[in-house]
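Target chain:
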Amino acid sequence: MQSGDATWFRIDDESAIGAARRAAIRVTTEIGLPEHRIAEAAIVVTELATNLHRHAADGSIMVRALRDGDRAGLGVVAVDAGPGMADPHRAADDGYSTGGTLGIGLGAIERLSSWSDSISVPVEGTVVAAEVWDGPAPPRSRVGWLTRAVPGEERCGDTVAVRQEDGRIVVLVVDGLGHGPLAASAADLARRHFDEHPGPTAAATLGQLHRALSPTRGAAVAIADIDPRTRSVTYAGIGNIAGWIVDGGGRRGMVSMPGIAGHRARQIQEWRYDVPVGARVVLHSDGLSDKWAPSPDLLTRDPVLGAAVLLRDAGTRHDDASVAVAEVPWTS
């Protein structure tokens, strides 16, 4: 599955609710959803944004286009920093309310979405993810990822791409140098080259990207080539993309070489790491602090929810940010 550029709205007043709704209508119209699904997508986004405005602390909502083969849908993620819900499943029942309202919002989101899921922890906050397609949602992706532009910029200089190749899952994370249009241009070039020119190994692909990025301002780049058959990941990086193997015992870092892809790279090298059963692979740009601690939800819930929690809790807000969480399927 592929995703378009993400647009984030901080829901700090009522006007932001309308802005998020209009963005959902624009995206669903551009991707060609039928009129009734456009209207239902607008309801989903409006209800999520309204809940953030009424009940949440530091709430934000994201909309983006999703593509799976020749199909397209709307992806929505809402995050907040509290107060959270002790029983989010009960909160989805019509008539349940903690704020004196009719309590129909979360139930409507569940009914009108092709897929939805949530994580809510009292005090810590809530994450809700939803997708609106014309019909059932595609099978869940093994990789969930999010990007967010630095405040004040319309385009994000970070990007993520994923491809399936001979049973492997190959994940690319790019952080264009700086931010703004030039950083986004470098990241977009890296993503296109990654999609169109797959290399035989992580290091070979990284070398190709290093050469392709020479006309740009450059980027930090990392590639994780995950092979479920051998329970391993081969990792290659240039610059300050952080790569981790996360399991119940904690997290283990993977090695990126210093430099700037497209300009300075003294050495391009890859490393192979074993991935324990039940572990996940996490990559993120330096728009996230590396001082986060793994939570059980990161290992057990849908990867896009894990990515959203990490972005909320570790996002530094003064830089473009990107995070990818990859579930490694068990192969006997």
About this structure: Residues 35-55 form the longest helix (21 residues). The radius of gyration is 19 Å. The mean pLDDT is 91.
